[in-house]
Amino acid sequence: MAPKNGIRIRSTRSLGRVGALLVAASMLGAPDSTLASQQPAQAAATEAPKYPQTEAKIVKQEDGSLLVDDKYIVKGQGTKEKPYVITWDMLVSAHEEFDPRAKKTTLPGRVMMLADKQVLIEGFVCFPLAIEQPRELLSMLNQWDGCCIGVPPTPYDAVEVRLAQPVVDDGKFATTGAVQGTFKVEPYLVGEWLVGLYLMEDARFMPKVLSGQGS
After folding, report:
1. Least confident stretch, 29-33, 42-46, 149-153, 154-158
2. Facing residues of 204 across strands?
């Protein structure tokens, strides 16, 4: 089975920014001719400038969790011992305020509050192709195998994860799990196309979530 729009991740190094470009183009419907001109590693992809951001409304609840913007529950303290435990709907909601192609250029405070904090999130995962001991993966809201099976992620529902240690056991065959590490919000654009937004660095991958982690 061929991948959608004939698109497939080609980077043998990672599922990183090149992969994000291909994913975003497939989801957003970029014409093949446009995509072809942007695929090489030396493509005119530039880090986005600093963007204004809103201020998150944060209320600490009796159980110690945070109620953010009257809607999102965040557990933990943002530390390595007690990371923020977040949900995908909080990350995905960034599209409401930040979409450069739609001339929306404000980063929501509810995601910026996570920047440079320890964060844990559970989801589907996809490792780079043909890497024996991967040090990078995509953590995603939806299942995707990097090619044909599942729903390719968007910049809002995927986190590019850089692991502190390579995965050397059967964990590289996992399709779900949790990741914890230092969270980054770094918009990455090709022209007006947003192809990456969330990163996690110095992370560890847990094929099975530990109960009570970060609570």
Report:
1. 29-33
2. 180
Question: Is 71's pLDDT higher than 90?
Answer: yes
102, part of any domain: yes
For residue 85, give its domain range.
Answer: 13-28+48-206
Domains in the chain, number: 1
Helices and strands in the chain: count of H runs, count of E runs: 4, 12
**Segments in the chain forming alpha helices (H):** 17-28, 32-38, 88-92, 109-112
DSSP secondary structure code for residue 75 in this structure: B
Strands 98-99, 84-85: parallel, antiparallel or unpaired by DSSP? unpaired
CATH number of the domain residue 121 falls in: 2.40.50
35 found inside a domain: no
**Alpha-carbon distance 92 to 74, whole Å?**
15
User: Is residue 94 in some structural domain?
Assistant: yes
Residues 38, 151: contact at Cβ < 8 Å?
Answer: no
**pLDDT score, position 215:** 38
Specify the range with the lowest mean pLDDT, choosing from 40-49, 59-68, 189-198: 40-49
Q: In terms of pTM, does the model score above 0.85? A: no
Ranges assigned E (strand) in the chain:
45-47, 58-60, 66-68, 72-74, 84-85, 98-99, 104-105, 118-126, 136-140, 158-163, 176-190, 193-206
